[in-house]
Design goal:
By secondary structure, the protein is mainly alpha-helical. It is built from five helices and no strands. It has helices at residues 3-16, 21-25, 35-54, 70-83, 88-104. It comes from Plantactinospora siamensis.
């Protein structure tokens, strides 16, 4: 994984890793969506980038019953993206998207 993407994913995971259900359900600081919805949307976007980079069909990332799994889901799809070995701009865009989500929370 690119160093920048790794850093951004780690920062977001540390920011939210200790959250309980009420905090996940609260509205994000920016926008009108719940924090969990915002992070799941990010997970789906990173998964889509990984599928595109690997030349595979896009698949829907399941929304698990427990939002506490979202940081792990993000780590997995970010690793999938890195494993697909996309062009540097794709990784940079993904890192920027993670950063923007982190700041919106």
């Amino acid at each position: 994984m690119s160093a920048e993407l790794t850093r951004e994913v780690d920062l977001l995971a540390r920011q939210v890793g200790h959250w309980e259900a009420p905090r996940w359900a609260a509205k994000a600081d920016r926008g009108n969506a719940a924090r969990a919805d915002l992070v799941h949307r990010l997970v789906q976007e990173i998964a889509n980038r990984a599928a595109d980079a690997a030349g595979e069909p896009r698949r829907t990332v399941p929304r698990l019953d427990n939002d506490l799994a979202l940081p792990d889901q993000l780590r997995v799809v970010a690793a999938d993206l890195a494993a697909a070995d996309p062009a540097a701009p794709v990784l940079a865009d993904a890192a920027a998207q993670v950063r923007a989500t982190r700041l919106a929370l």
